[in-house]
Amino acid sequence: MTKPSSSSSTQVKTVIVPAAGMGTRFLPATKTVPKELLPVVDTPGIELIAEEAAQLGATRLAIITAPKKQEVLAHFDSFPELEELLGARGKEEQLAKVRRASQLPAPVAVEQEKPLGLGHAVGLAEAVLDDDEDVVAVMLPDDLVLPTGVVEKMVEVRNELGGSVLCAFDVPQEDVYNYGVFDIEEADYNGEYRVKKVRGMVEKPDAESAPSTFVATGRYLLDRAIFDALKRITPGAGGELQLTDAVALLIEEGHPVHILVHEGKRHDLGNPGGYIPAVVDFGLAHPTYGPHLKKVLREIIEEHGA
Ligand code: G1P
Questions:
Q1: Per-residue pLDDT tens for 191-214?
Q2: Is a pLDDT exceeding 70 seen at residue 2?
Q3: Which residue, by CA, sits nearest to atom 13 of ligand 1?
Q4: Cβ(236) to ligand 1 under 6 A?
Q5: How far from 306 is each of 253, 277, 283, CA to CA, in Å?
Q6: How far is CA 301 from the centre of its chain?
Q7: 2, 66, 225, 237: which has the fewest Cβ within 10 Å?
Q8: CA 47 to centroid of ligand 1, rounded, Å
């Protein structure tokens, strides 16, 4: 694969948001509420992702949903009666909150009939792309990567090095078994970010056999070639079609893949152990709730014997 000329510029139109999971780690709440609608303070995780996509300049959100998860899409509808009521009562702040989601990149539902894996989910989104889209972003709604804006940086790296760029965190070795793990080497890159070249990638390896402690964390900038690779993989870890295996296949075939090691923090909204700290973090930063929360958290910690 040739490097793009320095004048080529990546414009992401579509952000793929896989949201078809059953949310089993969040039962019983997820019996009736999709986990993507659970609020981080007052805003569902999926809306935070849509805001991140809007910030990137994307115009379409391809939301992969399961047959019984239509509520996720409904969140992006407009709510005329509610808006009228709030307007008539002069509740401008609440009105803006109701309207916000409908002003974000247009969501398109892509139904995944069976839970065949992240690779399968992402592959389905090809059907909604325009012919001129040579790159897509994937944002996993379980992962909040902060501060936002990491995909913009990954776009800069693709403009320089071509191919695909994935977001990585360096995690403790005992945690790698939860992730897609990168086999890396030094990149031919002198820019301002921490960038490495990927030699290979393996999904959820044992800690002992993992090639590094750099792991994939929820943000991918993928060349359109990924869709062809996704059609050629077979079930991998957990018996599922893995996005990781399609990335590994691209690398084998000479497609450049790099990671941008994010210098920031991350919350995993996919389970209560990661969701609770996210709510506390956003709560403490909130102008209305922050000061009180700080005070009561101190009391609670004291009570629990810090
Ligand atoms: C998925 C990916 C994995 C990645 C992780 C990031 O796994 O398959 O490669 O590291 O997201 O959160 P999941 O968490 O869906 O099991």
A1: 999 999 999 999 999 999 999 999
A2: no
A3: 179
A4: no
A5: 53, 16, 20
A6: 31
A7: 2
A8: 20
